[in-house]
Amino acid sequence: MIFAGTVLTFFYFAFDFRFELPVLAIFSSFMETRFFTTFRTNFADELIMLLFLSGLFLLAFSEDKHELDYFKSLRIKALIKTAVAYSIIVMLVLLFVYGTGFMAFSIVNLFLPFILYLIIFNILKKRTRVNCG
Is the dihedral of CA 85, 60, 56, 126 positive or negative? Predict the structure, then answer.
């Protein structure tokens, strides 16, 4: 899914990939504010973000085929460290990033917890392998 999201992102930016689709919006605020309405929109950017999000979710929370029980405690440690790191990053961005940069961070913010978790978990896993063998 991450690979499909990457390919679609390339086509989205390089070739202005678009496909119009009717969608249900619980809240919409473009030209006018509307609730529970349907309209046609380019669904490519939503599809790309759904692919990345679901791919990162599956990657982060899938166990290896032969995962040791010890890795479960590593996963919990990684989740705690991720929560701390994520909170610090969000606080720093709230204090020091404004305007368009903050809007860009809002999009990155969707994926950041998963990316941080994967990085932290793999670091903890490598440290364990170095210490064990």
Answer: positive
101 and 121 both lie in a single domain: yes
Q: What is the pLDDT of residues 29-56, one digit of tens each?
A: 777 788 888 888 888 888 888 999 999 9
Q: Which of 15, 36, 62 is the last residue of a domain?
A: 62
For residues 85 and 57, state if they share a domain: no
- Residues 2 and 56 sit within 8 Å (Cβ to Cβ): yes
Tell me the per-residue pLDDT of 63-122, one tens digit each, with 9 for 90 and over.
Answer: 777 777 788 889 899 999 999 999 999 999 999 999 999 999 998 999 999 999 999 999
Q: Which long-range contacts (CB under 8 A, 24 or more apart) does 66-71 make?
A: 70/128, 71/125
